[in-house]
Design a protein that fits this description.
With 222 residues, the protein is α+β, with helices and mostly antiparallel strands. Helix content is 17%, strand content 31%. It has helices spanning 12-19, 106-110, 153-158, 184-196, 198-203; strands at residues 5-9, 25-29, 48-50, 53-55, 61-64, 75-79, 82-85, 103-105, 121-124, 137-147, 163-165, 170-174, 179-182, 206-215.
Length: 222
């Protein structure tokens, strides 16, 4: 099977977690409209997932999930927020390399003494990052489906939640109260709520669990 390169968006906080080696998993909501249902049932909304197979409220097979984030062995190239120099006013991402455009990554700016180049550049959202500007590559090592709230303590840590060292154990960050003092799972769920909203958290959706390892830039990329 041919290895694929697939773009994926990460917030600046999660980019930092990847760069620091704290994050080796990501969760993405399963989109059930991505699979072709075989039948329409009365209890169609009461779905369960076994492997990648979807069953309805009558425990009858509806169809198979279609995973669009890459299979094991595929490479995710990370799109992150960045800045470009002010002398590059006419934005054409495909000319980045040829024009030697200076790039500043938001994650680096937040973690250093570098001043934000707001007075000499323009911020570009992660969705607009072209391949030429990518610097982070993740190889998919495992994929599975589970409910959001089924996340384990170890997996919550592997999601890259921030922490400080306490007296006898690590204390994890609450992304809602903006202070340290919760378990890894509680920390992750506050992060999920911050990114995806309270409704998504309360619905306890099925999510793709994508495990990965950071690798060097592949020679055949682009």
């Amino acid at each position: 099977m041919t290895q694929k390169f697939i773009p994926i968006l990460f917030s600046t906080e999660m980019v930092n977690a990847i760069l620091e080696g704290r994050k080796t998993q990501t969760r993405r909501v399963v989109k059930f409209d991505n699979y072709p249902p075989k039948l329409t049932h009365k209890h169609h909304s009461k779905k369960t997932v076994k492997g990648f197979e979807v069953y309805d409220g009558n425990n009858e097979l509806d169809g198979n999930l279609i995973f669009r984030h890459g299979n094991v062995g595929d490479i995710l190239w990370v799109r992150e927020s960045f800045y470009t120099a002010s002398n590059y006013n006419h934005w054409n991402p495909r000319l980045l390399i040829n024009c030697n455009v200076e790039i500043f990554y938001k994650a680096d700016i937040q973690n250093s003494s570098i001043k934000q180049p707001l007075n000499r550049g323009k911020k570009r959202p992660s969705i607009h990052m072209p391949k030429e500007a990518c610097r982070i590559f993740l190889k998919v090592t495992n994929v599975r489906v589970e409910r959001l709230n089924d996340i384990s303590r170890i997996d919550a840590i592997d999601e890259g939640v921030d922490f400080v060292h306490g007296v006898s154990t690590k204390i994890y960050y609450n992304y809602e109260s903006l202070e340290f003092g919760c378990t890894p799972k509680e920390s992750f769920l506050t992060l999920w709520k911050k990114i995806n909203g309270n409704e998504s958290l309360n619905s306890n959706p099925f999510v793709w669990v994508i495990e990965f390892e950071k690798i060097d830039k592949p020679q055949n990329f682009i």
